[in-house]
Amino acid sequence: MLLRLFRRHPREWGPVEWLAGGVVVVLVVGALVLLANLLQGPGRCGADLKDIDGDCVGVTARAFEADPAVESLIDAIAAENARVQREWADPQGNAPRIPYVRIALMMPFTADEHSAMTTDMIRRALAGSLTAQLQANRSGGPHYQLLLAPDGRNLRQWPGVVERLAELAADDSTPLVGVTGTPSSTEETREAIDALSEHGIPTVGPVITATDMNSRYFFKTSPNNDQLARALMLYVNEHPGQGKGFLVWDNRTEDVYSQNLREVFERHFGKKYRLDEHNSNFTGTSGTDKGIPQRFTHAVTQICTEKADTVLFAGRDQDLPAFIERLARAGDCGRAGELRILKVGIGLEPTLSAEAPTRWLAEANATIVDASSVDPAWWKGENDPPAALGRFLNRFEKIHEEHKLGPKALDDGYAVMYHDAFVLLADAVDRTFADVNEGGKQTPEAVRMPTKDDVYNTLILPSVAGDTCSGCLRGAAGTYGFEGPGENDQWAVCKPVPLVLHPSDSGAAGREPLPLLRTFRGASGEGCPKSSGS
Length: 534
Fold this sequence. Notes:
Blueprint: H1 2-7, H2 15-40, E1 49-52, E2 55-58, H3 68-89, E3 100-107, H4 119-137, E4 143-150, H5 158-169, E5 176-181, H6 187-198, E6 203-205, E7 218-220, H7 225-238, E8 245-250, H8 256-273, E9 279-282, H9 297-306, E10 310-314, H10 320-330, E11 339-344, H11 355-363, E12 366-371, H12 389-402, H13 414-436, H14 452-459, E13 464-465, E14 468-469, E15 473-475, E16 478-480, E17 496-497, E18 499-502, E19 517-518
Helix pairs in contact: 3-4, 4-12, 4-13, 5-6, 7-8, 9-10, 10-11, 13-14
């Protein structure tokens, strides 16, 4: 019929002919598009992810194209995920079928000069997460797929990612039981964790520290800014200096972390150092363009003029080297003694302990005092390393060598804290699995798999109560736990907060034992379990 229609030329086409011709065009174009897609394959982001503004976004268990610095780690996680799936669906020989659940790693997998999470941080976070996944899958109980859930380099593509995670959580056979990652204290992260809570998905923030980043289903394994500032206060009380303090703060209003840290510093140190009169601000590099960043001339001039001996830095670590360099150009400003730069962080970012910043610190006669989640001395067996650190190091060292993570790969704390966040969820799954399956005596086909609700109900059981620690997380960063539903807004209790000095041999104070705070228990650590192995 179509052939006859086309042969009736040159008579002018009527509605029927135009409709038929349109159908043919649509079918031909559709077929060509389908053929092109089949020939090209799923594209750089794979079948599960979408390319949005140059970032692969979504949720997948498989590998996808990423920054060359992280591709080998993504490939390794994807390979482990495939092995876990095979051992359930098609085990080899007489091997038993091993059931599995899913934990999602939701964070940026790409970075640029404005990103709060740098490429090196992403790489170390992946390495720590892979370490925990491999460790969990070599133990008894269910196995774990680590789903990769990139939400864009500035965390703005979270809505579609959360929607997909909620769908996966409804899968009865291999359910999604929790989410880890969520790396930066920003408004986008706040919205994402609220959305995950609305879906009832337990989420762990490995490196979140802003005290107001709270939601019902959101657990934090790092100390918050308030607890970190309390650790710095212990240091200042033991080493008071000349009593001349100065606050340097990031003026980006959208950076929840820096704004919260400024408020915390003002609350704890404001009266002591009259910070309302002794402060200066700068524009940080994280976030959208707000003019020339890292302009520290005014701050350094004021510090020199006032002969301040204590600087409180309320900004991100990426901006601190530029501040130290500007201090070095001013020399010691005629101060009678050393300048202490008080900061908080997950660890000591390697860019701060590199050769150039270390030389600048010497030129300025300055020392960094960092209240942290980890202590680089632990890797050397010093300062009472956590009891479970050795188990982590045994497996991490293999990953470090295989994926060429470079020097000081543990010092910023990201690998350690991402490991501990995964372990927190996996421990809750294992405990729940044993409870609901009478210790796992059923056949693989008959077992009941924990759901997100079961895991949440396990997480909110008090693990720290009085002098007991039942079900505490024995992590690479210490032994710590939680006090029950909503207590301390789901911040970890008894988490050790080491003080790290750089250079470590600067001044007499650097050679003296430093106070160790345990979160929500103070310097005494009363009621906390022993964290070290000594």
